[in-house]
Write a structure and sequence with these properties.
Shape: globular
Helix content: 25-40%
Number of domains: 1
Largest sheet: 7 strands, mixed
Number of helices: 4
CATH topology: Aminopeptidase
CATH class: Alpha Beta
Radius of gyration: 14 Å
CATH architecture: 3-Layer(aba) Sandwich
Number of strands: 7
Strand order of the largest sheet: 1-2-3-4-5-7-6
Oligomer: single chain
């Protein structure tokens, strides 16, 4: 696990598109259409943001996830963003390791709440979030632009 590098942009964009397509999350209103997908390194240079990638034993990027301040919300709320893994990286505990690391970093950066949006088809992700204590919300928070997501979760960090 390491911070994203500029040269990871193409690979992480490819992973995001592949995984979102696999789960049927391709219509307008899903993160697959965010302009930042092609420039993830640049996107996460903002203050109080971080994107980490997971590599396999050969050093190839196989997944990643990030945190950043939730747009349109209080400054003490971060959003878990674009956490996706290729099939080969799933079920090995790397999602738990990455999420744990991101939540600890969010606390260090002064966030009090972590918010995320997902879709019903991403059942494994939902199980992971609930395992970490995320609670389902009845409505979205902030201004993510992801109006196709049906599920919203939050976790109190402090």
């Amino acid at each position: 696990m390491r911070p994203i590098k500029f040269e990871d942009n193409h690979k992480i964009a490819s992973i995001i598109r592949e995984v979102m397509t696999e789960y049927g999350a391709t219509k307008k209103g899903f993160a697959i259409h965010d302009p930042s997908v092609d420039s993830m390194f640049e996107e996460y240079q903002a203050p109080r943001s971080l994107y980490l990638v997971i590599t396999n034993k050969d050093g190839e990027v196989v997944g990643g996830g990030g945190i950043a301040q939730l747009k349109g919300a209080n400054s003490d709320i971060c959003e878990l963003q674009k956490m996706y893994f290729l099939k080969e990286a799933r079920g090995k505990g790397q999602g738990s390791e990455l999420l744990s690391n991101l939540l600890e970093q969010a606390r260090t950066l002064g966030y009090k709440t972590c918010y995320l949006e997902t879709t019903n088809s991403m059942k494994e992700a939902r199980i992971l979030y609930e395992k970490f204590g995320f609670k389902k919300r009845s409505s979205p928070l902030g201004c993510t632009g992801h109006n196709a997501c049906e599920d919203w979760f939050e976790l109190q960090l402090s």
